[in-house]
Amino acid sequence: MILLTIGLASCRPAAPDRAAGGAPPDSSSQVLGLALSPPQEKPAFTLTDTQGRPFDFRKETDGYVTLLFFGYTHCPDVCPVHMSNIAQTLKNMPAPDASRIKVVFVTNDPERDTSTRLRGWLDAFDPTFIGLLGSRADIAAAEAAAHIPPSAKDTTVGAGTGSYFIGHAAYVYACTPDNVCRFLYPFGFRQANWAHDLPLLVAWPNQPS
Fold first, then answer.
1. Most distant CA pair in the chain: distance in Å?
2. Entry pTM
3. How far is CA 110 from CA 78, 133, 139, in A?
């Protein structure tokens, strides 16, 4: 298994733990994302969406290609780049295919990311993106369920000013419609590569496993 070191200093993203490590996919799969080894069952956790309703992640995304990312709206680079690339790719896809994909963004900055701020930030990329919030303990539990390294506030930057970074994993998890998380997408994955992979994930039952 290959362990990944992913991140930019400005956003303090954490590297993935062993459970999230991935090996390059077998060439027969065609998918360019990094294959999880072994694949993981879609995690089970419940947080609150931006409308204030409970969101059961496994239940609400059942049968969809699901892209799961933990980040925060004040992130200067990793988070907006991921969201922008995915949003533009979905915009360019045929509507029936794009409708089979759910993008779920979990904030790991509950002190600053209110439901209003999170909804507005996501809407700037794609209004169909799902934003989830919770207490820091709830978010930590969701990270653990997804085998995501725990996020942490960087108190060495902007101490006492309300301006700080969050150390967090810089990759997107991708779960296929059979509710198995099979791939991860590190920061730097190009929009053209998303355009290549997302149709393959939508058609996953017809792809080699």
1. 53
2. 0.84
3. 18, 7, 9
